[in-house]
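Feature request disguised as a bug report, sorry. It would help if multi-protein outputs had a clear separator. Right now it looks like this:
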Amino acid sequence: MGRPSGGNRKEEILEAGLEVFAKKGYYNTTTAHIAEKAGISQPYVFRFYKTKEELFIAALDRAFDRILDTFKNVEASAEQLVEKMIDAYDKLSERHPNEISLQVIGISVTESAIRIATQKGLSNIRSYTLERFRNAGIENVEREATTFLARGILCNISYFLDLPELIDTKNK
């Protein structure tokens, strides 16, 4: 059996990082934990990611990119757009729960590069949502986009804390 190619190994490390960061947080995770999860040596992690921070940012970027891709793939009338985007996000959250946790963790990390990556990710989602809502003719677009994003962040916190009562699922 051959050794996986570098590209696949980098992907395995990223996925291991997503899982370990989601479970242990940023500060309690070491590259040794990630290497162990990926079944490789710790120095091999550094072949693809120079620092733990770089790996965390790559994982965080993946989470934000998946959200944007999910929203871009929503096809809906203006009247159903918000509901369809919420449904798409719910499905994404079920498929990639570690990425949901990572977003909450990213908000709490104080390192400058991670704060910048978190700001960029959230800003990109906000910009896309505003544009999409505006193009759909949704009234009060700023308020609707802010409410939509706030609900998404609250959903993430609810999931992360295992506190489902934060979300009124009857009125999604």
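(second protein starts here, but nothing in the output says so)
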Amino acid sequence: METTGAVRRRTAERMRDALERLVTERDVWVSTAHPHHGPHQVPLWFLWDGRAVWMCTSAISVTARNAREEPRVRLALPDTSDVVLLQGEAECFADQEVPEDAAEAFADKFGWDPREEEDSFLYIRVAPRTVRAWRGEPELRGRVIMRDGTWLEQQSSAV
């Protein structure tokens, strides 16, 4: 995605662009926090299933510990000139308890199946409650494109 300078996109355009990136990108910055250990941020591979982001990390990682203890998380796609931020609550699944369709889709996208590893992994599902998207200062106003889990401007390609 390229920045459009001072051109301000409508909500439907921001939504379309954000959804396209959620489908095509492979990395997301995951921000978690622990009441005693503070904030933690790490990039992880992710899969967008049309409703939620799926990630996978070692079952003993700081991210796994934090998501289990405090499920509120923030996710950010890695482009500061085309910002997409998601906020929601993490749902955690042990690698042998993850829904089959999600695990298969994750393995298909990355060519790696954590369920086949010797070590334990944790799948983390985040259905966004809020999504913000903007390209530069002209788009700061109106940057919220999802609120309370509902896209603000529905369109057929959003599903």
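Even a blank line would do. Unrelated, but nice: The helical segments are 11-24, 62-69, 100-110.
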